[in-house]
Fold:
Amino acid sequence: MKIYETALAPNPRRVRIFLAEKNIPMEYVEVDIAAGENLQDDYKKKNITTKVPTLELDDGTCIGESVAICRYFEELYPENPLMGETPLEKAQIESWQRRVELHLLFPVAMCFQHLTGYFKDRMKPRKEWGQDNVKLTMDFLATLNDRLAESTYIAGEDFSIADITALCTLDFARVVKIYPQKEHSHLIRWYELVKSRPSVSA
Amino acid sequence: MKIYETALAPNPRRVRIFLAEKNIPMEYVEVDIAAGENLQDDYKKKNITTKVPTLELDDGTCIGESVAICRYFEELYPENPLMGETPLEKAQIESWQRRVELHLLFPVAMCFQHLTGYFKDRMKPRKEWGQDNVKLTMDFLATLNDRLAESTYIAGEDFSIADITALCTLDFARVVKIYPQKEHSHLIRWYELVKSRPSVSA
Structure:
């Protein structure tokens, strides 16, 4: 069993932290996305969308998409749950996980793709759209700060996959010079709390 | 228990079809997003991101995000599973569900937001980015057609939430004049199959 990934990208890090939280050992194989290794036929056979990470099981079965990989291990090893236990907990964690993806991870990805030119060999950066996403990101940091004024972690009183997604996004957002601001005191309190977990260095 | 939604929008339809497949009765309350009813404080208290749909339980607890609402009912009523049964099935359905969201639903939403001007009172449409997304959408229709050459439904041999997401997106894509093409014969075969389910009129 192994995971094909790009160590510096935010999505693979989500999976690494998830597995570290659950003490699941894993072999990692580096894919050079800057050089377009993921666009080659060999990789495309493992993952039709060419994205990283991809989990390859010992029988050759492949699973793409970070959260689908996390789901696989959460279902196999439900101890130390990161996606909830009751139907309501599972729904509330999925709700916050998706909000963080839609309103933080995706806007930050848009900033990265449209403001840095990192993938300009394979897409046309649209600078104005990138700048729009700086504002969308900052708006959501304020929303998240409000949420964290009333809740220890993002989805409630327990650490969850939603916290992992938000942490990986905030750390990656530095590349496009986006940071929590002084007035986001609850967000900063949460960041320090989450940052102290040993799993974050995975 | 009730769901606040906008009947014509694609995300609420995903939830209606999901509930119809599982024979779960529901009260629906219409929210006029064109008039900005979702941006009012009353609605924002139910759903901090102001999106539709929102599930409100009898005790006032609210759950936002379509797939989180589906997850709640899948966990409560696992009969007629639409999100898989084994860890591997759950992961593969989640993988395809997310691919359809990331590479079909979101690009079509970008086309809608950036080419029609529907929300121009609350965002600046970026026409070039809208046009880029027409191409991204067409590229993924070809990927999906390849997938459906080897699989009855999108995530495998069983109908799942991934099919619901793709159907709702394709039907909504007509608004921006995007349709499967003649060469997408496997996609068209799948569309006719899925379209014949009674739940699609929900």
Summary: The longest strand of chain A covers residues 2-5. The mean pLDDT of chain A is 97.
